[in-house]
Amino acid sequence: MTSGADGSAFERRTEVGGVWATWRVESPLRIAITALHDSDDTVVASFALGDQPDLAQARERWPRFAKLWDAVRHQFWSEIG
Q1: Is the distance from CB of 76 to CB of 7 less than 8 angstroms?
Q2: pLDDT averaged over consecutive 10-residue blocks of the chain (81 residues)?
Q3: Which site in 13, 18, 33, 45 is 20 to 30 Å from 53, CA atoms measured?
Q4: How far apart are CA 5 and CA 61, in angstroms?
């Protein structure tokens, strides 16, 4: 994970059980999902800047990845806490 001076400029990667998401923090404290990959390295979804769902939208669209979304939320709060 890398970040800018404000802690929000660059992408993070969170992985659970071989499934991973890349995401970044946008102001004000919005988690923007940039890509989602399945365990076989298949790109499930990839989003252009400005078209990225937030964490709540990702949960609604891909509920089968609930453990991944929980891990993203945990990483987010660990970083800003």
Answers
A1: no
A2: 51 96 91 95 92 97 97 94 78
A3: 18
A4: 32
